[in-house]
Amino acid sequence: MTGTSGPSRQPAEGDLDWPVTVDERGVTEIRVHGVGGGSPTAMLDDPTARQITGDRVAGVWRGLDWRVEGRSRWHREVYSWGGLTSKALSSALWLILLPFALVNLAGWMALGGRGRETGPANWLIVVQQNMTRVVGLGVTWLYLIFSAQMSMDLGAWQCARTTCRADGVWKWLHLDGHPHGAAAVAAVIPVAQILVMARLTAVSKRRYDEHGAPATSTPATERVAPADLARITMSSPHFWTARTYDEPARRIHLASSVLVIAFLLLSVAKAGGKFSDVVRAAWFVVGALLAVAVVCAAWDGLRRVVAERSAAPVYATAGLALGAAWLAVSVQPAGTPAEAGIMPGIVGFFDVVLVVIYLAGLLHGVVAVAGLRQVRALNNWAKPAWFPAPIVALVVAVAMTLAVGSGIVVWVARWLSPEAAPTSGEQLWQLSYPVSYTASAQLNVTGVLAVVVGFAVVAGISVRRRRREPDVALAAEFAVWKRYEALPGWQHLAGDERDGRWLRSVRTWLWLAGAARWLENLVIAVVLLSSGCLVAYAVWAFAEWRGSGFPVTLAICGIVLLFGAGVCAFTAAGTARHPHAVRLGAITAFAAGLALVVRVADRGLPEAGADPPPLDVPWLFGEAIATTVLALIPVAGVLLLRRAIRSDSTRRAVGVAWDITTFWPRGFHPLAPPSYAQRAVPDLVHRTTALLSNGNAVLLCGHSQGAALTAAALAQLTGLEEEHRARLSVVTYGNPLGHLYMRWFPTYVNEAFVDECLAVPAGNSWVNFYRHTDPVGRELFRKASPECRATEPAAGRDCWLPDPPTDLMRPGDGPPRIRQHGNGGYLWQSAAAAHLVHEAHRLESLTRRSSPMTEQVAVPEAGAGEEALIAFALTCPPDADLYAQALSRWEQTGSIEGDLETLRAALAGAQRQHRWTGTSIFGSAPFDRDPFVLALVERIRELSGGTVQRRQEI
Q1: Maximum alpha-carbon separation in the chain
Q2: Mean pLDDT, to the nearest integer, of 612-624?
Q3: Are residues 919 and 841 in the same domain?
Q4: CA nearest 354: which of 538, 187, 533, 536?
Q5: What's the DSSP call for residue 8?
Q6: Which end of the chain is more exposed for a tag (fewer CB within 10 A), N or C?
Q7: What stretch of H or E contains 809?
Q8: 721 and 826 both lie in a single domain
Q9: Over 70: is that where the pLDDT of 804 sits?
């Protein structure tokens, strides 16, 4: 483009500041890849594919057009979203926050009646989701407690008074023997952790979340009321708008995290003795604010109040509390307190947080069981698991946080001082940590390993039996294979002379296709065993603890449990009548219970006879081994995800669970990894509506997780006009909606959701292809057709594809391969390929009926600039073959031959071949000065008489 103050700017490949214009007339096929995806060139099987929309993270790529009845009217595009989950280093770092993602997932797994946008919400779903938010807040605090335990307690409070690897730092800072000052300095580390979490959420909001708002929504600077997640459905216009989910919760989590550090600092200041009355009063105030944060997490009404107010007072209050706490610690005298041990307040606060998490989880579990019964009564063909899935997600999140966090703390303690031990720290020279940390590490590692080994043995026996049993599972495949007669020299591998080894491999893959249920039961078994071990240890520890702390603790738990049960009951009544008054009373009672916990923690439990001794059981892993294994889990996870970013095979192996985990918006934990669907779904909706609004047709093709994105986009297109619906068709393959999503997320993905999406394309033109060997993609509509005929009207049906497609083998060839879940294996199978061709021809005929006759396009004058030539070239679909033929003839004879339409296609092909590099691939001349291009334009001008008819056939 030529400017007035400088040389012309040449557009470069991938330079998305330069507008890319492509021909959109006819049918546009948009492929959406699945887990791990693949490069756009591989998806389109076209090395010349180029990006036409989006950025380096996600966008639409287009390859060469295919012809329909001799015309280039079948445009092939792929929406590439893999960069949203696997192109940045931060994607690997997000794995450290996997427990947050599991908590968020548990909220979307809430069990109960189907979501409704009008009328009273299902109280079962309301209670589960509110308790999930409470557990999520507790897990965030556990992260900070473990960080404070390593930095403020072990590295500062204890190391400042004894010999350890960090004592040189405190001597250099003149803080040796001054544990209060050391703890104040070390508080910088957990505060920095909070700032990093805030920064990550801010970056993700810009990269992912701001794409989710519809065009008619309020500006980004205005506040949006939080969505009612117990009523909202995936067809809601604001379902993928981040501001309706995480802004109030983000304030609560970040501000309360700062208050946690302030609370710990004030607990340390209380032990110093200076300004004790003022410090105690401040300690009570901060504790009350933390209780309010828990109430905010559990009460929708109070969260809405937080959302409607400015964030400045919330963050300012937390900042002032932290500053006051830091000042209170800094003024404490050196050498106090005289007794050794763990930093004051941290173990007590840890216990209180665990009580809140466990009781919220218990209430959640009781209600989830009732919700599971309600879901089963809905006669949904995709029955949920026998054990409530949200409980599993919550328990795994909490157990993972406790196990890994305690393992890292113990490992750090032993690194700082080899003499560190799980005792009360009676010796000044000895670092100490809670006994429960080592017990948690040992029980979790041993229990998980025992369950995994047991399941491996059972799975091996099952596979062995499947490989030897009769071919009942292959009955459908045998029926298809027998239809094909063997050509001379060919043989049926499943005929009379069967290749037993090949059939055994097919049976093995059929068994692996059902491995999702095995993994589901494995996780449930791990959850039950880990929970049982921790409960058993708690009972044993209380029995060993001979003091009067046991009944007091039980009394606290009982009181909070009663108040929590009141919240549950009142919430159920509140959804029917007088919700605000009833809920206010329930939350007040719950806050009173929390205040009681804070008060008892302040006064301290009565003196106990002795701490529970460390576990010394022969069949348990040793403390050193267990804690080392747990400490290496985050490092191994980051390395695994980094390898997955670079390796397709590893990415596919770990991608299924990760992509499902990050599919849902951050509605229940604002610090969870961002939802890629909040960017991908609006992108698909905008591209589809833009094409349909111009009279063109769209063929959406979704594979694996791309099928879930396609369905989510269809839910957002329920308001399409009838004329546009007629020019929309959908094909999914390897689709996890029926097999996984309807089983794990029945509140949001259910039969009503599928029927709503099915009605978007006119005539229910949605076909779902699946295989028995596919572990992810299965039936969706339960209308399987044994005969997949391309000419059959597509009326929302499942189409089964045999795998392998045939058992015929030619001498010298290998046996037919098993295609399983692969993208290419579906598209290259004859039934699916024939259906795509049939749909492209059907949709193309609809676009020709609605297209105008002609459109006049002016031919650039001689010597016209680059911009005019490019615009002119794009008025006709490019044809690389015609370009190559015309160029070869011109080089040999020096003449340009052909009719007007052929030469225009050749010129567009020339522009395509230049690939926006600005120079000829046969020389150094710019595109608008290339001799062949100038000759071609001149010949077109002679044939057209100065104008060009852009024809659109009727």
Answers
A1: 105
A2: 51
A3: no
A4: 538
A5: P
A6: C
A7: strand 808-809
A8: yes
A9: yes
Q: Is 67 helix (H, G, I), strand (E, B) or coil?
A: strand
Q: Measuring CA to CA, how many Å separate 552 from each of 329, 363, 407, 556?
A: 30, 21, 29, 6
**Assigned token pair, 689:** 């509506």
- Spatial CB neighbours of 68, under 8 Å, sequence gap ≥ 6: 26, 27, 74, 840, 841, 844
Tell me the C-alpha distance between 670 and 245, whole Å: 8
As a whole number of angstroms, the distance between CA 22 and CA 677 comes to: 26
Judged by DSSP in three states, 483 sits in coil
Other beta carbons within 10 angstroms of residue 791's beta carbon come to 8
DSSP H helices in 604-704: 623-646, 648-661, 677-693
- Give the β-pairing of 27-32 and 71-80: parallel
Residue 779's CATH number: 3.40.50
Angle 765-766-769 from CA coordinates, rounded to 5°: 140
- 746 and 799 in one domain? yes
Report pLDDT for 541. 57
Which residue type occupies 208?
A: Y
Q: Do 684 and 715 touch, CB atoms closer than 8 A?
A: no
Are 889 and 842 members of one domain? no
Assigned domain for 702 exists: yes
The length of the chain, given as a count of residues: 954
Tokens coding 588: 């007040």
Per the domain annotation, does 347 fall within a domain? no
Residue 7 lies in a domain: no
Shared domain for 800 and 714, answered yes or no, is yes
CA pair distance 865, 774, nearest whole angstrom: 54
pLDDT of residue 845: 82
What's the whole-number mean pLDDT along residues 765-783? 83
Total number of domains constituting the chain: 2
- Is residue 696 in some structural domain? yes
> Do 423 and 430 contact (CB within 8 A), yes or no?
yes
Q: Respond yes or no on whether the N-terminal peptide bond of residue 804 is cis (omega within 30° of 0).
A: yes
Say yes or no: 817 and 902 in one domain. no
Neighbour-count burial of 592, counting CB atoms closer than 10 A to its CB (0-12 exposed, 13-18 middle, 19+ buried):
middle
Per-residue confidence band for 174, with pLDDT thresholds at 50, 70 and 90? confident
Q: If DSSP codes are grouped into helix, strand and coil, which group holds residue 635?
A: helix
Same domain assignment for residues 799 and 873: no
Q: What is the C-alpha to C-alpha distance for residues 222 and 307, in angstroms, rounded to an integer? A: 11
- Under DSSP, the state recorded for 149 is I
Q: Per-residue pLDDT tens for 196-207? A: 888 877 766 666
Residue 366 and residue 364: Cα distance in Å, rounded?
Answer: 6
Q: Are residues 859 and 820 in the same domain?
A: no
- Of 743, 742, 772, nearest to 757 by C-alpha is 742
Coil vs helix vs strand at 831: helix
Q: Which of 28-32, 530-534, 739-743 has the highest mean pLDDT?
A: 28-32
Q: Which of 794, 826, 850 is the last residue of a domain?
A: 850
Other C-beta atoms within 10 Å of 6: how many? 7
Reading the block at residue 44, the tokens are 């389109």
Considering 850, 881, 906, which residue would you say is the last residue of a domain? 850
Q: By percentage, how much of the chain surpasses pLDDT 70?
A: 63
37 torsion bin: left (phi>0), alpha (psi -120 to 50), beta (else): left
Token pair in block for residue 211: 């794409």
Is the omega angle on the peptide bond into residue 337 within 30 degrees of 0, that is, cis? yes
Q: pLDDT confidence of 129, banded at 50, 70, 90?
A: very high
Residue with tokens 């107010």: 309
The pTM of this model reads: 0.77
Query: Per-residue pLDDT for 510 more than 90?
Result: no
User: In 10 A of CB 596, how many CB atoms?
Assistant: 15
Let me know: does 271 contact 335? Beta carbons within 8 Å: no
360/627 Cα distance (integer angstroms): 28
Q: What is the DSSP letter of 187?
A: T
| Alpha-carbon distances of 546 from 606, 610, 646, rounded to whole Å | 11, 7, 56
Residue 154 CA to its chain's centroid (Å): 35
> What is the residue range of 798's domain?
676-850
